């Protein structure tokens, strides 16, 4: 990453990657705009996985955790192997991208990640084997949901960058029902920027964070910006 940025500056080239976090949502450009205008980032926190957003938005009522995962898989929200989503690695990658944008020198190995894949199932040889055995572990997730509901809270799988303390985390957290993260629907992503300028009331971006159309829109926006920088009329 640092070599790429150095080469970019030396050769006066452009390097855009908006769609790497939040698909077409203006997350990277917003972060860059805050930094370029002199703001100081204190904390970034968000629901960065459309798959896990969908799962925890629908993990309610009489549905078990494994049933919601199966539903998400059949709807095409998960990777072919849902463990790729449940492991939290995708969220950790996005945390790294945002952390580096803030000037932190972090690697994936520096990020503690709470995996939602039960340890005994990490070695399942096939996806079918994993899906068939997942219901055996519904009790733990049901207990966590019940504890949250009893406190008037919901579960959300969140990535966070603590810029002040120079660290990142990926974990399952609880939020009160009046919190913006508790009000998500579908596979929405949401991100909150806490900065010196936006300290009391974080700057929030919310919207679809997965899907071919919105991701293509994010890439196309970068292409248009590049064309503009290279002299195309506005």
UniProtKB/TrEMBL annotation:
TM ranges are none
Keyword field contains DNA damage: no
Organism from which the protein derives = Genlisea aurea
Question: Which pathway does it take part in?
Answer: Amino-acid biosynthesis; L-threonine biosynthesis; L-threonine from L-aspartate: step 3/5; Amino-acid biosynthesis; L-methionine biosynthesis via de novo pathway; L-homoserine from L-aspartate: step 3/3
GO molecular function terms here? homoserine dehydrogenase activity
Q: Name one GO biological process term.
A: methionine biosynthetic process
Q: Which PROSITE patterns match?
A: HOMOSER_DHGENASE
Q: Residue ranges of the Homoserine dehydrogenase catalytic domain?
A: 26-224
Q: Which family does it belong to?
A: Belongs to the homoserine dehydrogenase family.
Question: What name does the UniProt record give this protein?
Answer: Homoserine dehydrogenase
Q: Which Enzyme Commission numbers does its entry carry?
A: 1.1.1.3
Pfam families documented for this protein: Homoserine_dh
Its domain of life reads: Eukaryota
Q: Which residues form a coiled coil?
A: none
Cofactor(s) it depends on: a metal cation
Q: What top-tier enzyme class does this entry carry?
A: oxidoreductase
Keywords, A to Z? Amino-acid biosynthesis, Methionine biosynthesis, NADP, Oxidoreductase, Threonine biosynthesis
Supply the InterPro entries for this chain.
Answer: Bifunc_Aspkin/hSer_DH, HDH_cat, HDH_CS
What this protein catalyses is: L-homoserine + NADP(+) = L-aspartate 4-semialdehyde + NADPH + H(+)
Q: Which SUPFAM superfamilies match?
A: Glyceraldehyde-3-phosphate dehydrogenase-like, C-terminal domain
